[in-house]
What does this fold into?
Amino acid sequence: MIREKKHRLSPETYHGYQIVAFTLCLKNRTSFFTTQERFEIFEKMLLLNAQKFYCDVLVYLFMPNHCHIILSGNNERSDPLAVMKTFKQQTGYWFYKNALNVHWQKDFYDHIIRKEEDITKQVHYVLNNPVRKNLVKNWHDYPFKGSTVYDFKEMGLNWCRNPA
It folds into this structure.
């Protein structure tokens, strides 16, 4: 029997005041996150799970076939990994009930952001994803994004151009 190589850090590594960037992809690159209604359903589940596991959401952005989420633990009981696992399980069930041909890929990508100066750079990268994919000319124009920390409407249009 061939066993899959373990590629995730130990669960304890994610606990507490960690900041973790996640990317979840849809199987077969299915285009799904294309309407405000769909975005709001998934946004609500994400925000409820973040609150349940004591995390702030620095940024979340749903591209048509994947999403980027950066979570920040806000106390010693925080668990960003539990947020993602629960979110993926709940949304996977939602797909099963409402969109039978849409599925998440088996796993997700993540990395712990270790340097304070990397946080802004990571948020810039996420917000500019729809610009790089030519979906909009400016990140402000992309509708399927949010944060529990930043008020993107108050930030200038050039806030995340050419991050240092």
In short: The chain has a mean pLDDT of 90.
